[in-house]
Known about the structure:
By secondary structure, the protein is mainly alpha-helical.
Amino acid sequence: xxxxxxxxxxxxxxxxxxxxxxxxxxxxxxxxxxxxxxxxxxxxxxxxxxxxxxxxxxxxxxxxxxxxxxxxxxxxxxxxxxxxxxxxxxxxxxxxxxxxxxxxxxxxxxxxxxxxxxxxxxxxxxxxxxxxxxxxxxxxxxxxxxxxxxxxxxxxxxxxxxxxxxxxxxxxxxxxxxxxxxxxxxxxxxxxxxxxxxxxxxxxxxxxxxxxxxxxxxxxxxxxxxxxxxxxxxxxxxxxxxxxxxxxxxxxxxxxxxxxxxxxxxxxxxxxxxxxxxxxxxxxxxxxxxxxxxxxxxxxxxxxxxxxxxxxxxxxxxxxxxxxxxxxxxxxxxxxxxxxxxxxxxxxxxxxxxxxxxxxxxxxxxxxxxxxxxxxxxxxxxxxxxxxxxxxxxxxxxxxxxxxxxxxxxxxxxxxxxxxxxxxxxxxxxxxxxxxxxxxxxxxxxxxxxxxx
Length: 453
């Protein structure tokens, strides 16, 4: 036991909300530029990584011409789109058409300002946290930026004056409303355990899980919230796909039915590049939020955490980057594996499955946290928990019975329709040719036509 304590890493200087706002202006500018450059490089090589991994999954080579392993392909594509002629289709709202990609990409960059990359370090002789800024409601700030970003999609579709683009914008607004509610609810369990909405303090709370007294025994609790709150993380992982319009929830783009959705009228120019950049930066934002809230943030995983210097200095930047690459790889894996679902299935899944599951899970987490409060009335808590469980079961069986009756009624209606079509083939809509066409062999066309109609 003593040996384990010797190997345990000492706690670094952990930043909190009060640690911010004291940096010199030049340190703040350096950190802001560093985040901006990091996101630009992440977008370029995120595109390369996605194309390369999907091609290998499909037994293709992928980008392999520009540079070693095709590493310069994304740079070549960016230069190409930057220098292509910027066209404005007829009848578009020119101002909104031009500003929509900017509205889409700027909030995504702003959301990264509250993501912690590491502890307090020495930067050019100044002690500063590896985070641009923090707020007492930092997680809500991320959700607010995600909500503003959808205006870019809606305006891009509306200003294009194209039916496909307008439908894509409408789909995106409805999708974000439904899935952002589920996303926000999936954070509630983390807030209950951490007791704060500050991103830096949530990471600090995952330094040690503490112990839980059960029947006189001290049970060590895991430090990362993904272990204790696995339903919250799974729901958040699904909402990440819906929030960023990624497969299988890329209905606002829907190439099969909407050509390209809200970006149909944007040619492969700088505006199109901004739209793609906004999409990928949003993917990295939701990935970074999942790391911060559920995977310990910049903290090293076990057994690397046993090394004394794992969570000190600039090493946490490496652990954060590795986690970010792994989560982004999950996005790519889903895109290569799953087909696009129907829009009615998308909306029904968000409102009828994810939100009720989230509410039930929040009730359970709140009950567990209440049990750990000293002096809590355990009898009242048990009674409330039992009533909630019984109520959920009653609702489930009630709805299950109603749905079963609806299925049986629908099956009976379909059976009657099929029987009617077998007796009268033309009863289902348009008239059909008679089944005894060989009988008209040798007759002229007028007789055949009269027989059909």
